[in-house]
Amino acid sequence: MKFPVYNKKSEQVKEMELTKRLFGVAIKPEVIHQVVIAQAANSREVLAHTKTRAEVRGGGKKPWKQKGTGRARHGSTRSPIWVGGGVTFGPRNERNFTQKVNKKQKQLALAMCLSQLADQKTLVIFDKLDNEAGKTKELGAWLKEVKTKIASVKDSKKFLLVMDAKNDKLTRSAKNLKGITTISATSLNCVDLLKADALLATEAAIATLEKHYKKVNEKKASEPTEKKVAKK
Questions:
Q1: Which of 6, 26, 11 is nearest to 113 (CA)?
Q2: What is the mean pLDDT of the chain?
Q3: Could you tell me the strand order of the sheet in which 159-163 lies?
Q4: Confidence tier at 118 by pLDDT (50, 70, 90)
Q5: What is the pLDDT of residues 70-110, one digit of tens each?
Q6: Residue 103: which of 209, 217, 226 has the closest Cα?
Q7: 157 & 202 share domain
Q8: H or E stretch at 183
Q9: How many structural domains comprise the chain?
Q10: Residue 172 burial class via C-beta count within 10 angstroms: exposed 0-12, middle 13-18, buried 19 and up
């Protein structure tokens, strides 16, 4: 499948051949859902942590003698039934929420997200992307020009800028712009793709994608495209 390639002035200069292996895959919502849930679980930080009676400080002395006081017997003020004591069955930081996802399934879900963007024409390819001055103002002006000249992304509010190599100036200039995120081609993932309204990538970044994600089955490209996945 052929896709237009634009220059920095958002003018079409040529066409690029995209493989169906990554950009023409049949979309299955259940596959993407499983990968997204696993990614969220694997990035979860376990912060809640309560102490048991053995970890709470103090309570070594018996509060009162065993008999003769008329009160209930107690051996420590750090008991779970005392205020300030340990917690029974409370959350611990040893909990493990990670979920395993096969590499083939992860890359297949990524190809499905890329295929959806390509099908909606919200994938825009440029011959190169740079910001020599590293100025946020220049990048913001360029983004407005892209929205004006390329009809398929004119209503987009969230952009994902995919780079083939590290570009500190471009990354720095995008930090203060609302609605634009930069990412390397080898770090691309389903969550970022689903959050974005449009994907802006260089020719070199597309070539890197083709080379890096090799686990997508060729047979998937021949299946008919199903209902598109709703963005979250």
A1: 26
A2: 88
A3: 12-17, 2-6, 123-126, 198-202, 159-163, 180-184
A4: very high
A5: 999 999 999 999 999 999 999 999 999 999 999 999 999 99
A6: 217
A7: yes
A8: strand 180-184
A9: 2
A10: middle
Token pair belonging to 173? 């200039």
- The domain of 50 spans 46-96
- H/E element, 145: helix 136-149
Q: How many residues does the chain have?
A: 232
Q: How far apart are CA 152 and CA 141, in angstroms?
A: 18
Q: What are phi and psi of 151, to 5 degrees?
A: -60, -35
Q: Give the residue carrying structure tokens 């039934």.
A: 81
Residue 232 lies in a domain: no
Instruction: Say if residue 63 is in the same domain as residue 159.
Output: no
pLDDT-derived band at 193 (thresholds 50, 70, 90) equals very high
The answer to whether residue 228 sits within a structural domain is no
Complete DSSP assignment for 216-229: S-GGGGGSPP-PPP
